[in-house]
C-alpha cells in the first residue's frame, strides 16, 4: 500500500487517502491488529503462496503494508523482503513481524540490488489491492520491476478486486507489456477458478 520514497506521484491512491486523512495509516494498522486479536483469518494469501514454494524460498512482498502476508511467510520458513511506500506501515511491520527485511520504497522505482539485495526472488507477491492504489501511469513500470526481481522460474502473484479503477483486461495487457504471461488466473485466494463475471482476480504470472 504503497508515503515517501525516491519519487512519489500525486496520483497514487494511497497517498491521496493520507492527504485527505493524515490518520489513515494508523487507522489501517489498528484495524488489522484488531482483526488479528479477534481471531480473524488473515492468512489466505500467505497460505496460497506457501503452497507454491519449497521451504526456504525467497519472497518479495511488494506493497507489504503492515507485513501481514510477508510475516506469515517468514514464519513458515521463507526468506522475505517487504517494500512499501508508507513509512508508518513499514514501522508497524517491523514491530509486529521482526525477522524479514522491511523497506520504505516506491514500487515504481524498485531496485533492490542498489540496496545490497542482489539475489532474486522465487515469488513476488502483491496482495491487498495494492495494484489498484498505484498511479495509472506507473502500473506497467511496477510490473516490469517486479519481473526484473524474479529469478529462474519465479512468478509474480497479484490480487485485487473489480470496481477499483483497474479493469482486469487492462491489467493483463499491462502485464504482457511488462513481459509477464498468465500461468493461472483465479477468482479467490482459495483457488476458485476465474470466470468472466468474477469480482476478484488472483493472477499468477510467469516471465514470458
Automatic annotation (TrEMBL):
<dbReference type="Pfam" id="PF13649">
    <property type="entry name" value="Methyltransf_25"/>
</dbReference>
<dbReference type="GO" id="GO:0032259">
    <property type="term" value="P:methylation"/>
</dbReference>
<keyword id="KW-0808">Transferase</keyword>
<feature type="domain" description="Methyltransferase">
    <location>
        <begin position="59"/>
        <end position="154"/>
    </location>
</feature>
<dbReference type="InterPro" id="IPR041698">
    <property type="entry name" value="Methyltransf_25"/>
</dbReference>
<dbReference type="GO" id="GO:0010420">
    <property type="term" value="F:polyprenyldihydroxybenzoate methyltransferase activity"/>
</dbReference>
<dbReference type="InterPro" id="IPR029063">
    <property type="entry name" value="SAM-dependent_MTases_sf"/>
</dbReference>
<protein>
    <submittedName>
        <fullName>Class I SAM-dependent methyltransferase</fullName>
    </submittedName>
</protein>
<keyword id="KW-0489">Methyltransferase</keyword>
